[in-house]
Write a structure and sequence with these properties.
Elements (H helix, E strand, L loop, with lengths): L1 E2 L6 H8 L7 E4 L6 H7 L3 E4 L6 H10 L5 E3 L5 E2 L2 H13 L6 E8 L8 E10 L5 E3 L5 E3 L4 E10 L9 H11 L6 H13 L3 H11 L6 H17 L3 H10 L8 H13 L3 H13 L14 H13 L3 H14 L4 H10 L1
Parallel strand pairs: 1-2, 2-3, 6-10
Antiparallel strand pairs: 4-7, 5-10, 6-7, 8-9
Helix pairs in contact: 6-7, 6-8, 7-8, 8-9, 9-10, 10-11, 10-12, 11-12, 12-13
């Protein structure tokens, strides 16, 4: 682990791994709270590392301190429940020694009455392969060899954001140093600009990114985010074109279909909107960063609204009940329930 000022969550995280980890390594990058004391109390080996605005460098330093055959990384906000702790212990007993990389499920953005985002991420790697982390921001492991996928889930439960401008600051520093951005860097730089309401600059970076070779899921998501940016700029036609540009990279995803439906429903074009929401429900869950609600709950609820205004009340009721079965206590269900009873 690499950490800084995480006293609120350190005990929660480390208590999860004590049941299966032979060694716990905590690399502190400048905490001024009780992070180090709590980590030491929980049996971790503590190493200090001067923060240099480079997550990959800090991760690589943490890996260099590991002495066991396999290395597993975690963030301080990560949680492993009791069931998955048992799966981890079982994995240690049954793991094929020829495996080099183990992917596990990563569950994020879990909110009440909403489905989480779940995707697979490299989580456990063989030390002897000397895998290297890359990327100053949103770092990733450069892996190869024999890969195994395990039905083990780690939940990312962020309690607070200590420095919301950190990532943007790092990217701006890279630009000042004239560092050559990888496609991944450029994509995440665009997202940081968007999140900090620098919309015109974000549009420029997304457009440049989409001209480069990159991971398909990032390309599709960039089209979605680009459409959102154009909507903030009050340019609905460019937003629609950004959404449809994603079709060049992959078949229409639920997220894109829902976004197009939203555009049309705002124009009171309910029949066309219903078409796209129905495509969202029909589309295959690709993995990536979509959540299940984008495949059922959200389009189901929007279809109820579309058919309500098309005066197809029986069909509207069907879709409302469809959505209600998924999240019966969702605020939008409770708010609209009176119209569909």
């Amino acid at each position: 682990m690499i950490v800084k000022n995480e006293e609120a969550v350190m005990k929660r995280c480390l208590s999860c791994v004590q049941t299966f980890a032979d060694e716990i390594i905590v690399v502190d990058t400048g905490s001024v709270d009780r992070t180090v004391d709590i980590s030491r109390e929980m049996g971790a080996k503590i190493y200090d590392y001067p923060w240099g605005d480079d997550f990959a460098a800090a991760r690589n330093f943490s890996f260099s301190k590991a002495t066991m055959e396999f290395q597993m990384w975690l963030d301080a906000d990560d949680v492993i429940d009791e069931e998955n702790q048992k799966k981890m212990s079982m994995l240690k007993e049954t793991l094929d020694p020829s495996v080099d990389v183990i992917f596990m499920h990563y569950e994020m953005n879990h909110q009440k009455e909403a489905s989480p985002v779940i995707f697979d991420r490299e989580r456990l790697v063989k030390k002897g392969k000397h895998f290297v982390w890359e990327g100053r921001v949103h770092e990733t492991l450069k892996i190869n060899g024999k890969i195994s996928y395990q039905d083990i889930t780690i939940k990312h439960k962020k309690e607070q954001i200590n420095d919301p401008f950190r990532n943007l600051r790092i990217f701006e520093k890279m630009r000042k140093e004239q560092v050559q951005f990888t496609p991944r860097d450029q994509y995440y730089y665009a997202r940081e600009l968007q999140q900090h309401n620098k919309i015109t600059e974000a549009v420029e970076q997304y457009e440049c990114f989409l001209k480069r070779e990159a991971w398909t899921e990032d390309q599709v998501q960039a089209c979605y985010e680009l459409g959102s940016c154009y909507l903030q700029l009050q340019d609905r036609i460019s937003a629609f074109l950004a959404y449809t540009k994603s079709f060049f990279y992959a078949v229409p995803t639920s997220r894109i279909c829902n976004a197009i439906g939203c555009l049309l429903i705002e124009d009171q074009r309910y029949m066309e909107a219903a078409y796209w929401y129905e495509q969202a429900i029909r589309s295959t869950h690709r993995g990536g960063f979509e959540n299940q609600d984008e495949h059922d709950f959200l389009p189901g609820l929007q279809l109820a609204i579309c058919y309500y205004y098309l005066n197809e009340k029986a069909i509207a009721k069907y879709w409302f009940d469809f959505a209600k079965k998924i999240h019966p206590n969702h605020p939008l269900i409770l708010e609209n329930d009176v119209y569909f009873k």
